Amino acid sequence: MKPYILVVGSSNTDMVVKAERLPVPGETILGGAFLMAAGGKGANQAVAAARLGGNVVFIGKVGDDMFGKKTIELLKNEWIDTSCVGVDSESPSGVALITVDGRGENCIVVASGANRNLLPGDVGVEKIKQATLILMQLEIPLETVEWVLDLALEHGVPVILNPAPASPLSDKLMRKVTILTPNQTEAEMLTGIAIVDVPGAERAAAVLAGKGVKTVIVTLGAEGALLLEDGRFDLVAAPVVKAVDTTAAGDVFCGALAVALAEGRLVKEAVGWACSAAALSVTRMGAQPSAPTRDELDAFKDCS
Fold first, then answer.
1. pLDDT tens, 69-80?
2. Which of these is catalytic: 65, 88, 245, 251?
3. Considering only CA atoms, which of 65, 64, 51, 101 is closest in space to residue 244?
4. CA-based nearest residue to 162, from 190, 138, 191
5. For this structure, is 251 an active site residue?
6. Which domains does the chain have, with CATH numbers?
7. CA–CA gap between residue 111 and residue 234 (Å, rounded)
């Protein structure tokens, strides 16, 4: 098998309602548009990487139900290796309920289902050893994330960890991470530093690097991404676009970053490419449907 990106993570079915604004607690809003699409941070990142030319192996767990069967079918349609996707007969597949407002901002509630049962024994050691790099998130049990990090470190395989959804992480865990990709909210939770501007992001990134993370990339939405590598800060701009739905922008960023690094690009160049991919994705509705192909991204960059 040629070199591959190993994505270990979640898969969900996203049920999305687009309305002019997000409801406040206890309020019902009429007039929204509904769509249902494949999602979950792990599967989103796997699809994003595959569409951009990455050779992707996905390890996850789905329920023995219509959503799980459809998830595997859709991943196979993207030429993703699903031979290590487990089927859980006890728990349903993961589901996410998403509301998107007129500015493209969203709020999400996830019922994890079978994703909670993706355990270390479900992740093959050989798959870790043979990977070019590994991409993970936090919608699966933390013990599984830690187990993969330990094996990756032992075998010299770099790991990109997207710490989403935001969750406390130990310094011991972070010392094993090659690249950490928090957004502003996640960086604030991990450091306790409020991020309202680029200097705030720099302070948070410095704290994370001080905990042992080799490279920190704080994604800043329309502002691009802040890279801290080898003690140097670089603010990488994102193309200016009109956002329709920001649901999977961070996932597309991570998938694109993984492909660029697997192809041997320098980190700063890879971050710029990932910013462009994420910017293109927010001009479309849905999680996986918004992920661009390689040809689409090349054409978008030529026009930016």
1. 999 999 999 999
2. 251
3. 101
4. 138
5. yes
6. 5-22+33-303 (3.40.1190.20)
7. 37
